[in-house]
Amino acid sequence: MNAIQKTFSIFGVLLFLLQQESCAEKKPEIVHKAVGSSLHLVTDHPRENLTQIEWKFYLKTIAEYDLSKFTLFDSFYGRLHTNESDISVTVKKLHFNDSGKFSIVQQGDGFQFETKEVQLHVHDPITDVKIHSNVNWLQSKNMCTFHLHCVVSAPVNAAFNWNGYQVGNGSHLSFNLTAEARATLNCTASNSISVKYTTTTVMCKKETGFNVKSGIPQDLLLIAVGAGIAGIAMIIGIIGACYKWKNPKGGSDGGITVYEDVKPDSVMKKRSESMNNGMSIYETVDDMIVTPKRPPDSSYKLQTLYDKINFERHPAVTPTTSSPYQVVL
C-alpha cells in the first residue's frame, strides 16, 4: 500500500512540473541594433528537421520557406534577403520603425517546434561627444568653481560617466579648483549599441575671462539692491517737490486764454461779466481800438475780427473788383 502511494505521489509531482513548464511563457530575445545595420533571423533547428518555416513581424507574415523554396511578401520595401545555407532571412538598412517583435514559426515532419521570438530595438549611434564648461571666479575664497556639461551630437538616450580628477555619473559635473590649479577629466557616453568618450583639461585663472563672484551672500545683495531703488525714488520725489514749489500755478478766475492772447495789450473787456473766460475769437480782437468817426447811421457796430482784416469795405462791385466778396488785405 505504501509503495502504491509513493508511486502516485511521484507521478503527481512530475505531472505538476510538466504543466508548469508548458504554461510558462518563454521571453523573447532582446536585440539592439543601430540605424542602418541589419537583423539576421535564423532558425534554432537543423535544416533536415524542418519542413516549413514562417517569419512574421508582429502578426504579419513577411517570408516563408516550404519544400526548399523561399517566398518573400511585399514587406520592408525590398530590404529582405534570404540565405539558403542556414535557412535565414535578413532585414537590411534598419529604420526606427523596424523596432518591434519578430517571430519564427518552425514546423517539422508531423509536429511543430517552439516559436522563436525576437524583440528588436533600433537606436541612433553616438557619433561625437563634447564637454561644455562654465567657470566662476570666487574672489573671497581665491578659487574657481567649474560646471561641466557632457553632450552628444544627436538627441539619443545615453548614459554618462566621468573619470579623472573627479568621478561621477550623469551629464553634469561640478567641482572647485584653487588659483592656478589644473584638472583633467574624461567623459564617456554610451548606449546599447555604441560608446564614445572625450577628454578636457581645465585651469583656474584669476578673473581671466570668467564670471566674477564677490562672495556676498544673496540675501544681503538683494537688500542692498532694494535700498538703492528706494533711495533713487526718494531723490526723484524731492526734485519734483522743489520744482513745484518754484513754479506755483496761477490762481486767477479766468486766466488768459488762447483767444485773449491775440491782443495781449488790451486793457479792458466788453464781454458780459457772466462769462468767466473773457472774450472769444469771434469777439472784438481789440475792444479799445480807435474806430473811425461814426456815420449818422446808429446801427454801425464795433469792428470784429472779420472787419479788422480790412477796415475799408467795397460797397459794391466795381470795375476794380472782381468779386462781391471783400478783398482780404
The succession of helices and strands, N to C, reads HEEEEEEEEEEEEEEEEEHH
Number of helices: 3
**Shape, per Cα inertia axes:** elongated
Number of DSSP E strands:
17
N-end to C-end Cα span: 150 Å
The helical percent reads 10-25%
* Rg over alpha carbons: 51 Å
CATH class of the largest domain: Mainly Beta
Number of domains: 3
Helix-and-strand structural type: alpha+beta
Signal peptide: 1-24
Organism: Triplophysa tibetana
Transmembrane segments: 220-243
Protein name: Ig-like domain-containing protein
Layout: helices, strands, pairs:
Elements: H1 2-23, E1 29-34, E2 39-42, E3 52-57, E4 60-66, E5 70-72, E6 80-83, E7 88-91, E8 100-107, E9 116-123, E10 129-138, E11 143-152, E12 159-164, E13 168-169, E14 172-178, E15 182-190, E16 195-203, E17 211-213, H2 218-246, H3 305-308
Parallel strand pairs: 1-9, 10-17
Antiparallel strand pairs: 2-7, 3-4, 3-8, 4-5, 6-7, 8-9, 10-11, 11-14, 12-13, 12-15, 15-16
Structural account:
The protein is of the alpha+beta class and 329 residues long. It has three domains: 25-123, Immunoglobulin-like (Sandwich); 129-213, Immunoglobulin-like, CATH 2.60.40; 264-312, no CATH class. It has helices spanning 2-23, 218-246, 305-308, and strands at residues 29-34, 39-42, 52-57, 60-66, 70-72, 80-83, 88-91, 100-107, 116-123, 129-138, 143-152, 159-164, 168-169, 172-178, 182-190, 195-203, 211-213. The strands form four sheets. A six-stranded mixed sheet has the order 1-9-8-3-4-5, with no helix packed on it. The protein has a four-stranded mixed sheet with strand order 14-11-10-17, with no helix packed on it. A four-stranded antiparallel sheet has the order 13-12-15-16, with no helix packed on it. β12 (159-164) and β13 (168-169) form a beta hairpin. The model is unreliable at 11-24, 209-218, 251-264, 266-291 and 304-313 (pLDDT under 50). It comes from Triplophysa tibetana. Residues 1-24 form the signal peptide. It is found in: Membrane.
